[in-house]
Amino acid sequence: MKRRQFVKAGVAGATLLLAGSVVQAGGQKEADAKAGKINTLMNKENPTVLEKKHVPLVEAPKSVKKGEWFQVKVKVGFMIEHPSKPDHWIDRVELQVNGKKVSEIVNVAGGTTSPNACFTIRLQKPGDVKLEAVADCNIHGTWLGEPVYVKVI
Fold first, then answer.
1. Which pTM does this prediction carry?
2. For the chain, what is the domain count?
3. Does residue 144 share a domain with residue 70?
C-alpha cells in the first residue's frame, strides 16, 4: 500500500469514528432525527409519562365555514403540560393540514416560552380536513399527536 493510500484510509477511519462520537454526544434527539424517528402515542389507555408530557393535542372547532379564519390550539402534553425549563423545552411546534406543514413556531430558549401554540388559519375547500401537530423536545425528540378532523362547509 502506498503512503498516500494509507493516509487516506486513516483519515476516513478517523472521520467515521468521530461521526459516531458526535451522534452519541449529541444525544437521543439528534440520533432519532437522523433516523427519521417520530414518537407517537402507543397506548391511549395506558400512556407513559413521556407520552403524557410530549404528545401534542390539537384543539379545533368541529366545523368551520370555507374561507373564514379560525383558531387551532396545540397543547404540548396531552395529559400533563410539558414542564418547559431552561434545560428541557419544546423548541418547535408545527401544524399540518392533510399531512402538509402550514405553519410552525420556534422557541429558541427554554423556560421562557410556553410549550403551547395557537395558529389562526383558514381552509378553502369543502369537506373533511385532517389537522395534526408535531412537537420537538430538545431532549426527547419529535412527537406526533393524534389527528383531529374539521368539516369545512
1. 0.76
2. 2
3. yes
